[in-house]
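seq/struct pair 1
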Amino acid sequence: MKKSIKLLSLAVAAVAFVACSSAEKMAKYADNVKVVCEPEVLEVVAGEIQADVTLTFPEKYFHKQAILVVTPVLVYEGGEAAAKPFIYQGEKVKDNYKAVAALGQTVREKALFDYVEGMESAVLELRAVVKHGKKEWTVPARKIAVGCNTTYMLVDASGYIAPKADNYQEIISQTEEGQILYQLNSSVVANSQLRSQSVKDFIEALNEINANERKSLVSTEIVAYASPEGGEKLNTRLSNNRSLTADKAWDKLTKGLEVADPSVKSIGQDWEGFKQLVEASDIEDKDLILRVLSMYSDPAVRESEIKNMSAIYTVLRSSILPELRRARFIANVEYKNYTPEELVALVDDNMDILDEEALLRAATLVKDNVKKAQLYNKAVSKFGSDRAQFNLGVLALNEDKIVSAEKAFALVKTKDADLQNALGVVELRKGNLDKAAAAFKKAANDDAKHNLGLVDILNGNYAKAAQELADVKGCCFNRTLSLILNDQLDAAKASAKCKDARVSYLKAIIAARQGDQSAYRVAMAEVSKDAKLAARAEKDVEFLQFR
C-alpha cells in the first residue's frame, strides 16, 4: 500500500511538472494552449484584415510570476507585418496586463493589419515570448491561418457617370405658314390679299419644299377665324364662310404645284389669337384686358367687359382685331436631318455648319477622344453649351485625367444632380470616400445611388451595397459582386449575365464557393484569356480547393 501511494505521488508530481511548474516550461509546452482563428481564411474588408483569435490556456499552464507576449505576424510575399501584441501576466505579477488564472482561462483577441499588396497568399502566425524576471524563452511560431481573401477589391470603382444627352432629331417637324386677311364682317378674299407678302412667302416655301430632297410635305391645312366682336353666332357663320373662300383661294394659289389637298377648319371667334396678340403688344392697359379674359369664359361677357373700356377698345379695334379676321394656310413638313454617316463626315469636312445638337450627337459617333473633345469645345465656344462643358469633364474621367475633369466640371453653370454625381465620382477616383458619399447623397439620382453602392463595397457595407446596386443598368459586374460578398450565391449566379472576362471571374468564384467544379472550369477557360485575371486567379484563395 505504501508503495502504491508513493507511485501515485510521483505521477501527480510529473503531471504538475508537465503542466508548467516553471516559466520555462510555458515555452516548452506552448502547444498545450489551444488556439482558434476566425476566419480560417483571412479576408480584407475596407482595406483592413481582422483576425479573431481565441486562446485557451489549460489548468496549471500559466506560471503565476510569468509574462507571456504573443505577437500576431502576417507573413506575405515581400515582407511581414506585426499586429499589436497580446500580453498576459500570471496571478502574482504586479503589472497592468491581462491576468490569466493558474486554473486555466479562455481569452479572445483581435488582430488588425492594414492590407498591403502581396498579402493574398499570406500566412498568419503567432510568435510568443515567455518572460520571468530577467529571463526570456522564445516560443516556436504557430501558423493559425493561411491565405487572405481580396474578392471585394475586384469592384469596379470608376463610378457610374453618363454624358449629357443631345436632343438631336433625325426627323424634324416644321411648319410653313401664310395668311389672308378679311374686311370686317366680310368673307370675300380681296385680290390684294392673294398678292400679299405673306402669301408670296408661303408659295415660295412650298416651292422650296418640293425642291429640297431633305424635306417632305406631310399635310396641309386651312384654318379660318373671326375676330371676337359682333356676337358668337355671327362670327361662327362668318368663320365658316371664310373657310370656304379661303379654300377656293388656295386652289388658285397652288395651281400647278405638287401640294396635297388641305384639311379645312373653321374656329369661329379667335379668343386664343386675341390673347396672344395682346400679350405680345405694348398696349398700356394690356394687363387689365388679360385679367378680363382670365375672369370670364363666356364670350359675350368678355366682349361686353372689353367694350366698356372705351379707350382701350378703340386701340384694340385698330391694332388687334383686324389681324384676327383671317384664314391661315399651313404646310406641315418633315425635314430629314444629317444621317450618322453624314455627321461623321462633316466632323472633318465642315464642322462649322453643325448646330449644338448636331455637335453633341456627332461626339457620340466618333471614337477618337481628340475629335470628341474638339466637338465639345466647338459647342462650348459657339453656343455656350453647358452640356458640352459637362461632357468634357466626363471625357476626362474616361481617360482617368482627374485634374482635367475637375477643371471642366468647375466651368459647368448648371448645378444639377448630374454635376453633383460627377463631383462625387471625382472624389471616388481620388479615394475620398466620405466626400464622394456626401456628393452622391446630395445628387440623389440613379447613377448616384449606384455609386453609393460602390462606396459601401469599399467600406465593407455589403448588404447595403447589394440593395443600392440591385437595379443597376448596363454591365452586371458590380451588382453580381455585391451579391457574392453577401453570400447570395444563387442570386449572384442569376445576375452574372454579361459577357465579360471579369464577370467570368465572378462566375468562377460562385462555382468554387458552391463546389461546382464543372462550372468552375468553364468560367476559368474564359478567365484564362485575360492575362491579368489569370495571374490573379493563381494566387486567389477563392480557388484553393481546385488548385
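seq/struct pair 2
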Amino acid sequence: MEHTALSQSIWMATTEPRTFAPLTDNASVDVVVVGAGVAGLTTAYLLGREGKSVVVVDAGPILSGETERTTAHLASAMDDRFVELEAIHGQEGARLAAESHAAAIALIERIVREEGIDCSFERVTGYLFAPAGGSRHLLEDELAAAKRAGLTDTAMLDRVPLTTFNTGPALRFPNQAQIHPLRYLSSLADVVVRNGGRIFGHTHVDHVEGGERAHVRTANGHVIHARAVVVATNSPINDRVVIHTKQAAYRSYVVGFRIPKGSVPTALYWDTDEPYHYVRLAPDTDGEHDVLIVGGEDHRTGQADDAAVRYRRLETWARERFTTGEVAFRWSGQVQEPVDCLGFIGRNPMDRDNVFVATGDSGQGMTHGTLAGLILTDLIIGRENAWEKLYDPSRSSGVRDLGEFVKDGVTMALQYAKWLTPGDADNETQILRGTGAVIRQGAHKIAVYCDEEGRLHECSAVCPHLGGIVSWNQGEKSWDCPVHGSRFDCFGKVITGPAKDDLDPVQAGTQVSSGAKR
C-alpha cells in the first residue's frame, strides 16, 4: 500500500502535532524516562506528583511511534483471555491481572477528571463473541475463568445487541472504556511540564547506564544523570537478549470507516478468531459521523509483506457484519506479545537495580502503559506494589503451548538462515520504483530502495541489534527485522527498537542506469 492520506490513524488526523525541543545540554534529575508514549508520560506524571524531578526524552516527536497507532481499547477483559492467564499464572495471577487493568482504567478516568482533560473518555461495555461456526464452549470456559478472576458482573448473552448481524452467544464485560489517546496524552504532557517535569523530543538515546552514576547518553553527546532510569520504548533499547527471548513483535492492521452517527452502538467488540478482530467507535470531527475502527490480521513483524491483502480482508470482514461507509483511514502498528501473556514492568533483568523497563503490551498498550506508571512509581519511591511480582521482567515465563514455543524457535532460526539464501531480486534493475528488495552482493546482503525517480538507496540488510536480515515492508515503506522487530525507514534510519543504530550505509543516491521498473 502506498503512503496516502488513508495511511494515517484517526488520532493523527484529529490531533494537533506536539513539538518539544531537543535536549541541548547536560542535565541531572531524580529520574530520566526514555520514551514519551503512554508508559513514559504516565510514569513521569505520577513521579512528578510524588515530588520527583523528571526528564522525559524521545527519539522523535512525542506521542509518535506506536502510541499514535493504538486503537485505544481500555479493557480489563484481557486480550489473551482469562482461561490462558489462569493456566499459566494460576487463579490468583489471573485475578491480579484483571484487578491491575481495571485500576489502570480507573487511573486514566481520575486523571481525566482531576486535570480537566477533554479526550472523549467514556465507560462502555465490551462484547466477546465467537466467529461463525465457533465453539460456545470456549465462551463458557472464559465466562467461568473471568468470574474466578473477580469480574463477577460478566454475563453470557444470546447475542450482541447489534442489528446488522447475529453474533451468536457472546460475553458481556461491563465497565470497560475508550478514549482519544493522543488528546489525553498531549494534555498529560502539558501537566507533566506544569508540575516541573521537562520533556525533550528528537533526542535519540544511544546508551543507558545504571548504578551509582546512572545516566543516559544521547547521540549528540549530552548526558542526563539520574538516580533511576526508566526505559519505556515499547521494545527496550537497553537490553540485547533477555527480554527479547520472552516476547515477539507483531504487526497489526486497522481500517477506519466513516459511518452515520449512531448507526452502530458505542461499545468494544472482540471475537475469538485467530488472529482475532477488535472493533470500536470514535466520533468523527464533523459531528455527523462516527468512525468504525476495525483491527486484526496480525502477523510476526518482518515475516509477511502483504499489507494491501490484509487491509482488504479487514474491509471485507467489516462490511459483512457492520453498517460501513467509505474507508477514511488505514494504518498498522506494532505490538509486543509476551510468551506468557503479561507485560514486563519493573527492574531490567541482569542490570543494576535502578534501571527499569516497561514492555510487552500484548495488544493492550493503553492499560499496560498506565499500569507501568503505577508499578514503576511505587518501585522507584520504595513502596510495595500488589502487582509487581506478576509483571516482574525477571520472572520465569510460562509457555502457553510447547508446540507453539518450539515452532517459534524454529521460525527464529530460519530468519538467521536468510544469511545463506539468495536475495529477493537478482539485481537492482528488477526493483520497481517505490519499492525495496534485499539483494546479495557476494557474501553481503544489501537492502536496496528504489525511489519514485529511479534513484537507488542502499544500506546493509543486517540489523544492528543481533544480526538478523531485514525484510521489505511495502505497506509502511520500511525495512523490518523478523528476529526481534526492529524497524528502519526506506533509507535505513532506525524508527523502532530494540536496534538503537541505523542500518550501515553502503551507497546512496545512485541512478539506475538501465532504468528502474514502474
